[in-house]
Amino acid sequence: xxxxxxxxxxxxxxxxxxxxxxxxxxxxxxxxxxxxxxxxxxxxxxxxxxxxxxxxxxxxxxxxxxxxxxxxxxxxxxxxxxxxxxxxxxxxxxxxxxxxxxxxxxxxxxxxxxxxxxxxxxxxxxxxxxxxxxxxxxxxxxxxxxxxxxxxxxxxxxxxxxxxxxxxxxxxxxxxxxxxxxxxxxxxxxxxxxxxxxxxxxxxxxxxxxxxxxxxxxxxxxxxxxxxxxxxxxxxxxxxxxxxxxxxxxxxxxxxxxxxxxxxxxxxxxxxxxxxxxxxxxxxxxxxxxxxxxxxxxxxxxxxxxxxxxxxxxxxxxxxxxxxxxxxxxxxxxxxxxxxxxxxxxxxxxxxxxxxxxxxxxxxxxxxxxxxxxxxxxxxxxxxxxxxxxxxxxxxxxxxxxxxxxxxxxxxxxxxxxxxxxxxxxxxxxxxxxxxxxxxxxxxxxxxxxxxxxxxxxxxxxxxxxxxxxxxxxxxxxxxxxxxxxxxxxxxxxxxxxxxxxxxxxxx
Length: 508
Ligand code: TXE
Description:
Blueprint (H helix, E strand, L loop, with lengths): L2 H8 L7 E2 L2 E2 L2 E2 L8 E5 L6 E6 L3 H17 L7 H17 L1 H12 L3 H25 L3 E3 L5 E9 L2 E5 L5 H13 L4 E5 L6 H12 L7 E3 L4 H9 L6 E5 L2 H12 L5 E4 L5 E4 L5 H13 L11 E5 H16 L19 H16 L3 E4 L16 E4 L6 H4 L6 E7 L2 H9 L3 E2 L1 E5 L3 H10 L4 E4 L14 E2 L2 E2 L4 H8 E9 L14
Parallel strand pairs: 1-5, 8-9, 8-11, 9-10, 11-12, 13-14, 13-19, 14-17, 16-17, 19-20
Antiparallel strand pairs: 2-3, 4-5, 6-7, 7-23, 12-22, 15-16, 18-21
Helix pairs in contact: 2-8, 3-5, 3-7, 4-5, 4-7, 5-6, 8-9, 10-11
This protein binds ligand TXE.
């Protein structure tokens, strides 16, 4: 029995041989002539299931089902209290099934299972609880400044949302898309990444177990080129929320433009992690390691460009490389693993290509730089540190999305901040300093949607999250989600009998 079979048996699970979509509260039947994709465990490369691809007709059916569900009013007209109750029950069910969900996600995404169970799965539950709370207190607007009239601003759900989830944090990110759209009464069609269908499918079923009417969420599966493209170009969707890469986002936006469908994009980053001489050295070191190696480096908020001030540069680099060499890399099912494999083979090869280009362009390899040879046929990359002299290298300009970091030395704050901004991305930034002046300059001058000072990534769901420049369009967040997933409506009512012009009475 392989470790995969053992882990599945330990959880008392049986994986379907063929994973199909889930529409109208029922699994889509297996079709003998449909395209199939292999779903593999990234820790070993072994196939764990097949994925049936939904073609354009199947996608149209899922969209029609979500539309019918929306128009039935079962969810779109449900009371706030009813929606809150479903979200809260679902959050509790997710927490109760955390080990199972973590396993399903680990089997497809290869993320370390301990990280999944302790952080990513609870995040999915927290997202639902957060939006349940928010819809209980969100307010409309009333204007009474216009004499004789009262203006109220109300919102109604936009309709059917198309949600595209990525493979790097399927549950945490899909749950944010689901919570943000469903909280306000929308229905949706969700396309998980073709590499990571299992955990999301299970979460959707838990939402239904919690009382979500069947048909409120439809799940479709398949490649981006077939299933994703069909969903993005559907005439009958009202919103598109996409988390993924910039190249795909451009295609989604082009498809959306046909029907003027509004888009919300959460794309990549190439974020600076600035360490000043006056930082608390140990905290900066610990945090910088977390910022690049969390999620095996496959995270949009990675601090993948470390900028370190000259006074501590030698000491910092030596310590950073030593700790990187000591990371526990291996089987993601092993609870002690800190860095797992990449999510799929083509991504591993893409990262090896980034590494080769960095070397050719003159970056100095300090450690890692290859696929380890002692870990079998999983899609591993040895945690890799380069020292660079220039921010122009492709390593510093392109998102690698793996356990690969560059370190560059700077002399003063102006240089650090200008290096931080020398990027087409602008998602987040990190700064380690005990100087108020440095921290304030960083906050004022760095172009990024979220900044962290003296802490690694800590997410506050109340705050907006999203990127400047090519890192995205729009923001996650409670008010921001309300703005995107609802239509606002202004209603102006007469108070009493304000005068009305009398047309057609000139002859009197
Ligand atoms: O993602 P894609 P890829 C970044 C990261 C990574 C790069 C490419 O730098 O190396 O993007 O990753 C669906 N119409 N991020 O190629 O293609 C696809 O099926 C509609 C950052 O794997 O963007 C999947 O569900 N949909 C990131 C989703 O898009 C299409 C997360 C994302 O896949 C489609 C992931 C099409 N034409 C990658 N083509 C983040 N922001 O966290 C593909 N898809």
